[in-house]
Write a structure and sequence with these properties.
The protein has 274 residues and is mainly beta. Among the domains are: 89-128, no CATH class; 132-273, Galactose-binding domain-like (Jelly Rolls, Sandwich), CATH 2.60.120. 8% of the residues lie in helices and 29% in strands. It has 2 helices and 13 strands, in the order ααβββββββββββββ. It has helices at 7-19, 23-31; strands at residues 106-107, 113-117, 123-126, 132-134, 140-143, 164-166, 174-192, 210-216, 222-229, 238-240, 245-255, 263-265, 267-273. The strands form 3 sheets. Strands 4, 5, 7, 8, 9, 10, 11 and 13 form an 8-stranded antiparallel sheet that branches. The chain has a 3-stranded antiparallel sheet with strand order 1-2-3, with no helix packed on it. The protein binds calcium ion.
Length: 274
């Protein structure tokens, strides 16, 4: 290393010439210009978290060497690996697509099923009851009027040659009620005419002009209703399909009596999902 002559060195040379030896001064002069040690490499950055997708942080800068001269620069820390791509889950099934129905909620006919996950981005209605069951014979029946010898029970005996008959118009709709032992999920209600009555004389002119079918809840409040015309005679066999309405009774409001002294039908068919 070439010594640079500085004022202090000049003084040293001068002192050497004048005073002979000044070792300590010369030793300091020889060692001072040496370079510092290399800086430490920066630490590697921390990898980004899984699923977040952010890039990992850069390494920290190397530490400069010590000493009078600058040390070599520290090596920058290696760049960390980026996080895995993708977005964070945003629905309760683990996917990112908004779900149509929330898992755990009731679903299906009469809320008989439960919404469950069907993969990360879909749901399905599980456990829905879809078995159509004829239950007309399980009910108890009554009517606002009864023609002697033709009781309401004739309308649920499974025989379309027998009919219930009322005593004719009564200033308000004639009512026929069917009541279940417990709540049912109604899907179909059919009124069968007198067309096949055992007595041919009863087959025509003993029907009605219109029927309103109501489903009643356990407080006898209507929760569903549909009105149908019964044009012609015998009345057309008429079916209404509530598509799954929970209730405990069915009420028919019958108007437009075809005869002033009698009117009825042969069967009330009731279907429920169980
Ligand atoms: Ca019958």
């Amino acid at each position: 290393m070439t010594a640079v002559i500085r004022p202090r060195a000049a003084f040293g040379l001068m002192a050497l010439g004048l005073l002979g030896v000044c070792c300590s001064a010369e030793r300091q002069f020889d060692e001072a210009p040496g370079g510092g040690s290399a800086g430490q490499a920066g630490a590697s950055g921390t990898a980004g978290g899984s699923g977040v997708g952010s890039t990992g942080g850069g390494g920290t800068a190397g530490v400069a060497g010590f000493g009078a001269g600058a040390g070599t620069a520290g090596t920058a820390g290696s760049t960390s690996a980026g996080g895995f791509g993708g977005s964070q889950p945003s629905n309760t099934c683990g996917g990112t697509t908004p779900l149509d129905d929330e898992p755990g909620a009731p679903c299906g006919i009469c809320d008989s099923g439960v919404v469950m996950c069907d993969g990360p981005d879909a749901t399905a209605c599980i456990g829905e009851k879809l078995i159509s069951t004829p239950i007309g014979h399980e009910g108890t029946v009554s009517a606002s009027t009864v023609f002697n010898g033709f009781p309401p029970a004739f309308a649920i005996d499974g025989d379309d040659t027998t009919s219930w008959f009322s005593t004719g118009p009564e200033g308000q709709p004639t009512q026929f009620e069917w009541r279940a032992p417990t709540t049912e999920c109604f899907t179909s209600i059919t009124i069968v005419s007198n067309d096949n009555n055992a007595n041919p004389d009863f087959r025509e002119e003993y029907g009605f002009g219109q029927v309103t079918v109501q489903i009643l809840d356990d407080s006898d409040m209507p929760v569903w209703s549909e009105t149908r015309n019964l044009t012609g005679t015998p009345d057309p066999t008429t079916t209404v399909e509530p598509a799954g309405v929970r209730g405990e009774a069915i009420r028919l409001l019958l108007t437009g009596h075809e005869s002033p002294d009698c009117g009825g039908f042969s069967e009330l068919r009731v279907v429920a999902n169980r």
